[in-house]
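Mods, move this if it's the wrong board.
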Amino acid sequence: MTDKKTTKDNADVAGLSFEQALEQLESIVESLEQGNVPLDQSITHYERGEALRNHCRKLLKAAEDKVEKIRLGPDGKPSGTEPLDPA
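Not the wrong board. Structure tokens:
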């Protein structure tokens, strides 16, 4: 049930920081868990939540890709870095 308005409403998700997106997602989850939201609004909340969840995953993946571990040389001193989880 994605329409132009929902797409437009979710377009701003890309500009949110991880913290902002997570805060909004937590608010949506809380309101849905309370069960006092009308069905059509629940669907809209769910769609927004999905967009926020995907955005958070993307930001977390980008952060993980930047994390590196320090590689030690034979003398025990740092000699460079390597990816945290080499592929």
